[in-house]
């Protein structure tokens, strides 16, 4: 008699197949994602993700929602599994593909637009994190989106895309978090960009431009918070469902 594999074993087999190599080939997967964004059509025949990019370029949309089920339906199931198993590593690669495909619009509305115009005139480029006007949201595969309790959150799941089940017992207010600090030298007027890595930043106080070094001057950097990039940040505390609550919930479902 042949033993039928359980659903849990099938999930483990599928996730193990995603790790085909020890180190993912980001360049090849980036090309696959680019072709997927350019060619995928929804049920109505519309180029789904190219339309989202057009609306983001026109400042009509701020969220880029990527459905991993769409990638699996496109015929790249292993790619969708690799993204789910290494979502922290693939998020930046996906943003690079989006930055490459998003249409360029000559819209000047804020300080970042003015900096972008000045950088293009000078033949320079701004940090991609500063010019991104969207937030990437990745929706997990429907077959692997079953919520897990907090007690089952192990170290092997760090960096993966998981759905948790628990109770939120405390949450702070949504606060701005600095991600890119823009500063201008008061002597040479050069712009300096500092990307924040982690939760702390030591701002540069002295200009490091070649003009100040050649003139042997010490230019003081003045922060420009209107041109800097801030993201939404919130701390939340979760705990497991109490056993009594689970028993009551199970009883209600049976009734």
UniProtKB/TrEMBL annotation:
Top-level enzyme category: hydrolase
GO molecular function: ATP binding; DNA binding; DNA helicase activity; hydrolase activity
Chief site of localization: nucleus
Gene Ontology biological process terms, A to Z: DNA replication initiation
Family of the protein in this entry: Belongs to the MCM family.
A single Gene Ontology CC term: nucleus
Catalytic function, reaction form: ATP + H2O = ADP + phosphate + H(+)
UniProt xrefs under InterPro entries: MCM7, MCM_N, MCM_OB, NA-bd_OB-fold
The MCM N-terminal domain, residue ranges: 32-105
Record function comment: Acts as component of the MCM2-7 complex (MCM complex) which is the replicative helicase essential for 'once per cell cycle' DNA replication initiation and elongation in eukaryotic cells. The active ATPase sites in the MCM2-7 ring are formed through the interaction surfaces of two neighboring subunits such that a critical structure of a conserved arginine finger motif is provided in trans relative to the ATP-binding site of the Walker A box of the adjacent subunit. The six ATPase active sites, however, are likely to contribute differentially to the complex helicase activity.
Listed name of the protein: DNA replication licensing factor MCM7
GN (gene name): MCM7
Compartments, as annotated in UniProt: Nucleus
MCM OB domain residues: 150-235
Enzyme Commission numbers on file: 3.6.4.12
Record keywords: ATP-binding, Cell cycle, DNA replication, DNA-binding, Helicase, Hydrolase, Nucleotide-binding, Nucleus
């Amino acid at each position: 008699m042949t033993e039928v594999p359980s659903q849990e074993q099938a999930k483990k087999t599928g996730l193990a197949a995603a790790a085909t190599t020890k180190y993912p080939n980001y360049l090849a997967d980036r090309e696959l994602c680019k072709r997927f964004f350019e060619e995928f059509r929804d049920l109505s025949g519309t180029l789904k993700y190219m339309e989202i990019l057009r609306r983001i370029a026109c400042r009509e949309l701020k969220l880029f929602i990527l459905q991993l089920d769409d990638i699996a339906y496109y015929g790249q199931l292993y790619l969708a599994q690799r993204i789910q198993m290494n979502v922290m590593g693939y998020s930046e690669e996906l943003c690079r593909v989006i930055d490459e495909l998003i249409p360029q619009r000559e819209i000047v509305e804020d300080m970042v637009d003015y900096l972008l115009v000045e950088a293009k005139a000078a033949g320079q480029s701004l940090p991609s994190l500063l010019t991104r006007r969207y937030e990437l949201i990745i929706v997990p595969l429907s077959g692997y989106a079953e919520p897990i309790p907090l007690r089952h959150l192990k170290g092997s799941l760090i960096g993966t895309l998981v759905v948790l089940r628990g109770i939120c017992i405390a949450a702070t207010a949504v606060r701005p978090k600095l991600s890119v600090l823009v500063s201008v030298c008061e002597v040479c007027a050069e712009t300096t960009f500092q990307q924040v890595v982690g939760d702390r930043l030591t701002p540069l106080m002295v200009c490091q431009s070649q003009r100040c070094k050649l003139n042997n001057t010490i230019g003081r950097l003045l922060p420009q918070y209107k041109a800097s990039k801030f993201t939404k940040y919130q701390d939340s505390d979760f705990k497991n469902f109490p056993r009594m609550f689970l028993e009551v919930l199970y009883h209600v479902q049976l009734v």
